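[job 4471] stage=fold_predict status=RUNNING
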Amino acid sequence: MMLLVALVALIGLTCAEVPFNHNVHNERVIGGHDAQPNSWKWQISLQMNLYDDTYFYHICGGSLISASYVMTAAHCILSPDAALYRVVAGEHNIYEYDGTEQFVGVERITVHPDWNDDLAKGNDIALLRLATPVYNSGFVEIANMPYPDQMLPHDYSCFITGWGLIDSIGGAPDVLQQSPIAVVEHSLCSTHEWWGSLALKTMICAGGDGLISGCQGDSGGPLNCLTDGEWKVHGVVSYGPSGDCNQYSKPTVFTRVSSFLDWIYAVS
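[job 4471] inference complete, writing structure tokens
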């Protein structure tokens, strides 16, 4: 990965004792605040057994796109071995077991065929087939998707959600964080003063105000936007600046979901 842009998934890990008691160290969306419990019902925590020690560590976010599939970032896939991962749906307080969580193993991982470990080239998207489908408990919900090639206008207000770093030092909120974040149109984000040629049309830029951004641990999570009368997942957190995540003119960059719908539907 490019050092200038990587949102390294291994920073700010959270851990959870299998299957219920959460012993965690976790950080949040920069500039965010506590989300209401289970208000973003498609948000999941992607966790990994990194050290073969029976503990699962939060590495990324993701979105539930069907009862059997989760969408996340390709760079979140640290190993092709599906048995090392699990998905937690219905999660809110990552320190506690609230009874709303569903812990589900991963059966199969499908990374976009054009992903080549270079964030600047795009295609930073992957789908996880769950070992068992999640069930409708009232605390989980399937994400709505944008229409093909849909693009959002400049300054359109969306929400970023996740359990990512609060700053370059880190903090430890116990619950899912959310923050409004404004879209930066491609014509601006692709200028030299912003991300330049690193910003592709298959990406969405949002933020860049020096206050609000995604950060390590938010990777793979959703960009939630109210469009056509309903909340839809328009983006997947992909990259941001090295060092402090909330830098002026260096917004969080998301994989644009509307550019990959044919592939998503073909796989899932």
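[job 4471] summary: The domain at 1-268 is CATH 2.40.10.10 (Thrombin, subunit H).
[job 4471] exit 0
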